[in-house]
């Protein structure tokens, strides 16, 4: 196969666009299946992911040559979705409500983080954690800054404080996360709330 486009103008033909769209759909299906299967007991197997998607193993390997490549991308996508949720929530909610709604999303992220970090090598999860800290911190600061500006969040609240506190969620198993997660996050929101004196 040559490296040239399908026609001399440099624009993709309809068949090339269809192939690209199919490839993107397959990639999304693979990521979604892996995100669900990583919660299952035992080691995640690539052939299990391929079977769950209804695709061949060759197709999966073209997108993700190794299990760690796949799990790293699932985690990166989870971080991207979490970070992108912050400005969207601020568009539709008052700042403190947006922060509380974002914390609900953090609980789902914590499950994925816990299971993926348990499934990959230490060097991989340390690298993933190092690269995700900045974007997540920026999302937290966006929410806190909006809350401070509106007078709803205490002036001394820092993104690092929140990161430290929510990091404990990924250490809880599913039973404890279901039982304690909402209450812990509610306590955190109340702790961030500005206390106005008359």
From TrEMBL:
<keyword id="KW-0805">Transcription regulation</keyword>
<dbReference type="InterPro" id="IPR049445">
    <property type="entry name" value="TetR_SbtR-like_C"/>
</dbReference>
<feature type="domain" description="HTH tetR-type">
    <location>
        <begin position="24"/>
        <end position="82"/>
    </location>
</feature>
<dbReference type="GO" id="GO:0003700">
    <property type="term" value="F:DNA-binding transcription factor activity"/>
</dbReference>
<keyword id="KW-0238">DNA-binding</keyword>
<keyword id="KW-0804">Transcription</keyword>
<dbReference type="Pfam" id="PF00440">
    <property type="entry name" value="TetR_N"/>
</dbReference>
<protein>
    <submittedName>
        <fullName>TetR/AcrR family transcriptional regulator</fullName>
    </submittedName>
</protein>
<dbReference type="InterPro" id="IPR036271">
    <property type="entry name" value="Tet_transcr_reg_TetR-rel_C_sf"/>
</dbReference>
<dbReference type="Pfam" id="PF21597">
    <property type="entry name" value="TetR_C_43"/>
</dbReference>
<feature type="region of interest" description="Disordered">
    <location>
        <begin position="1"/>
        <end position="25"/>
    </location>
</feature>
<dbReference type="InterPro" id="IPR001647">
    <property type="entry name" value="HTH_TetR"/>
</dbReference>
<dbReference type="InterPro" id="IPR050109">
    <property type="entry name" value="HTH-type_TetR-like_transc_reg"/>
</dbReference>
<feature type="DNA-binding region" description="H-T-H motif">
    <location>
        <begin position="45"/>
        <end position="64"/>
    </location>
</feature>
<dbReference type="InterPro" id="IPR009057">
    <property type="entry name" value="Homeodomain-like_sf"/>
</dbReference>
<dbReference type="GO" id="GO:0000976">
    <property type="term" value="F:transcription cis-regulatory region binding"/>
</dbReference>
């Amino acid at each position: 196969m040559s490296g040239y486009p399908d026609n001399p103008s440099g624009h993709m033909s309809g068949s090339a666009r269809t192939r690209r769209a199919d490839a993107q759909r397959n990639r999304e299906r693979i990521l979604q299946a892996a995100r669900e299967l990583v919660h299952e007991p035992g080691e995640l197997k690539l052939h299990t992911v391929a079977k769950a998607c209804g695709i061949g193993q060759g197709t999966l390997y073209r997108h993700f040559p190794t299990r760690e490549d796949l799990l790293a991308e699932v985690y990166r996508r989870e971080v991207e979705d979490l970070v992108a949720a912050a400005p969207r929530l601020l568009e539709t909610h008052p700042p403190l409500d947006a922060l509380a709604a974002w914390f609900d999303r953090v609980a789902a992220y914590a499950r994925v983080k816990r299971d993926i970090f348990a499934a990959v090598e230490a060097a991989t999860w340390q690298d993933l954690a190092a690269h995700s800290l900045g974007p997540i911190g920026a999302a937290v600061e966006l929410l806190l800054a909006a809350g401070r500006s509106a007078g709803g969040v205490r002036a001394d609240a820092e993104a690092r404080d929140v990161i430290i506190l929510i990091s404990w969620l990924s250490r809880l198993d599913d039973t404890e996360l279901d039982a304690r997660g909402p209450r812990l996050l509610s306590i955190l929101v109340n702790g961030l709330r500005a206390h106005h004196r008359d």
